[in-house]
Design a protein that fits this description.
The chain is α+β, with helices and mostly antiparallel strands. It has one domain. It contains seven helices and eleven strands. A nine-stranded mixed β-barrel has the order 1-6-7-5-4-3-9-10-11. Strand 6 and strand 7 form a beta hairpin. The chain starts with 6 loop residues before the first strand and ends with a helix. The relative contact order is 0.24.
């Protein structure tokens, strides 16, 4: 069944050394970046609004996989997020592929509880696209995540997609890495007037939970615009494309053109 792309998200990695410091320092530097970003996109957008000035979320994040990284080798990512304020636990299974029709040819339905499924287009520097099909769902405080059958029961189609699926095979935290994720939001820019289309912006910093919390290991800036009916037209797409290309060219002080994406960083760890 054809899936509708409900959002298009553009991502760029930033130089992490610019964002060292306390949460207040992070917000200050996020504002500095937003000021430079706004200057770089003048002439490509109709308007810019607000600022990157609000810490929207703080949560703990872990990726799980088999010892041979079988999920990742089959284009899956399985992660857990724990909200630091509410302690709610949420898991997500994501399948990503550059071919839209391969990506959407999955049954991502949640097996135990109702889940929220999205089909999105992710774009990273220079203009590399991945189609992301994912479902997130809440899990209980005591739910274990230590064997392959844990994601297998939560997402039953996974059992059919993996070769040599063994329910009791152990899964572990990838790279023995637990991130504290801080999301700074509040800014947006307008890429179409009628109907009005806004791109929402966010800056995401990851800190290694076991080490110095003032030094992020990964920093990403992203913007996205959405349409539940996949009614993306050429005008808005052209402006988003121009913003992405021009900002990555103009912001050499900020952009880490060789920086690993968040998932790649986790899987690069020994």
């Amino acid at each position: 069944m054809k899936q509708k792309v409900v959002s298009r998200e553009y991502k760029m990695m930033l130089k992490k050394e610019h964002f060292v410091g306390s949460p207040d320092d992070l917000v200050k530097r996020a504002k500095d970046f937003w000021s430079a970003f706004k200057d770089s996109i003048q002439g490509f957008v109709f308007d810019t609004d607000s600022n990157l000035e609000k810490i929207e979320k703080q949560r703990i994040l872990r990726f799980y996989d088999c010892v041979d990284h079988r999920l990742h080798k089959n284009d899956y990512v399985f992660r857990e997020r724990v909200d630091l304020n509410t302690e709610d636990r949420e898991v997500t299974l994501k399948f990503r592929h550059p071919d839209r029709y391969i990506s959407q040819a999955r049954d991502m339905a949640a097996g135990v509880k109702d889940g929220k499924t999205k089909f999105e287009e992710d774009i990273k520097v220079p203009f590399i696209k991945l189609y992301s099909f994912s479902t997130k769902q809440q899990i209980s405080e005591g739910k274990s995540l230590n064997k392959l059958n844990d994601p297998g029961e939560l997402y039953p189609d996974l059992q059919k997609r993996l070769k040599s699926y063994e329910a009791d095979e152990p899964i572990n935290i990838v790279g023995n890495f637990t991130a504290r994720e801080v999301i700074v939001s509040g800014a947006e820019f307008q890429i179409k007037k009628n109907p009005r289309v806004e791109a929402e912006c966010a800056l995401i910093a990851w800190y290694e939970q076991a080490r110095d919390e003032d030094s992020p290991v990964v920093v990403e800036f992203s913007f996205r615009y959405k349409n539940e009916r996949e009614e993306f037209d050429g005008e808005a797409a052209q402006r988003a494309y121009d913003v992405f290309g021009n900002s990555t060219d103009m912001l050499a002080e900020w952009i880490d053109s060789e920086g690993l994406t968040k998932t790649a960083f986790v899987y690069s760890r020994p």
